[in-house]
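Field reference: "sequence" (input) and "structure" (output). Example, protein-serine/threonine phosphatase:
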Amino acid sequence: MGCVLGKCCNRHPLTSDEDSGHHRGVKPYKSKHSITRSSLELVHVPSHNFTLQYSSLIQHGYYPDAVERENQDSFCIKTQIQGNPNVHFFGVFDGHGQYGAECSNFVKDRLIEKLSSDPALLDDPLKAYHSAFLATNSELHNCEIDDALSGTTAITVLVVGDTLYVANVGDSRAVIAVKDGDRTVSEDLSTDQTPFRKDEYDRVKLYGARVLNIEQVEGLKDPNIQNWGDEESNGGDPPRLWVQNGMYPGTAFTRSVGDSTAEKIGVTSVPEISIVRLTPSHLFFVVASDGVFEFLSSQTVVNMAAEYKDPGDACAAIAGESHKLWLERENRTDDITIIIVQIKDLSSSGVGSTCGEVDYRPSPTSVEGNLDGSCVSESETNGSDQHGGLMNRSSALIVPSPMHQKPLELDVG
């Protein structure tokens, strides 16, 4: 959803090997609304003897009044992190503000560099994730990019053996598809961090944020009414965060990387992390920017993706439907980025086995307390640039809002 100031700024689609992070198989397609679609890729996870089959697509938003606006979305796919064939990373970054493209690409590169260079990554993925986000945010504040009113959201999935660690900052989303009898059911791996959520609303209010939608800011509605319904029914004019006695920054999310001004009123780069143990019932997962989910529910995205054997074709179909719905409801479209990862040949016999001396399931207690974001980094990165029931639910852990002192045990996958 972005921020009011420059929320529609975008970056040109990625076409060079340098800008696409040398991601194999990326082929640019020239069209009125430029699309970059990757070819089908495969990576084996030997510790549990299954395969990830994936593809990605990024579509430049359509802005009729500003045809030169840049695409602010970017994504990163990095396999075999630290040379380990069982560790893989998928992330989507949705920039916003005047320098949103620069922020998105900076975070895309630095976050995976920090994860890749953290020697404690496999011993404690949760702490490594927190440290990487906080350190990247600090570096963005201190680099040459002006992030006072610019930044990026980030939705990322780290695959470690048969376990997914999903770290989210902002309002992009990850969803997993689960086979339930003759149905394919969606299950959110992340929860959008917006003022629609009471816990996030309460947190930013403690930091002094005013929470108002545009009509309230403009005096058309009573600002004392702090109830905006839900995101599905009132997404067109969502509640936003404002400084006291000011008309900025106007962010519709409560967490991001960058946004140094919004940080003063509670916007944080601390990620919420969910952990999901894969089972043979898990079919595929989707990592996508909010350009996809603005008018499509998680279940609709999963239903569409399930119709295609090739994840690249599924990406194209979902992006096309999202683009169409944007133009039916508005005179523009957002940038659209989507990664679909199919989980192939994961058998019951493979679940629970491990390879070598790697512990794939660290203790949840390791994330308690303050987490320093410092770590060394190296430059090795690849990349370009809510809703249904579920059977056979397994226990997973979500690391919650900074207001909480300890992790919460929830059923999410």
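Residues 5-32, 352-396, 399-413 have pLDDT under 50 and may be disordered.
The longest helix spans residues 311-329.
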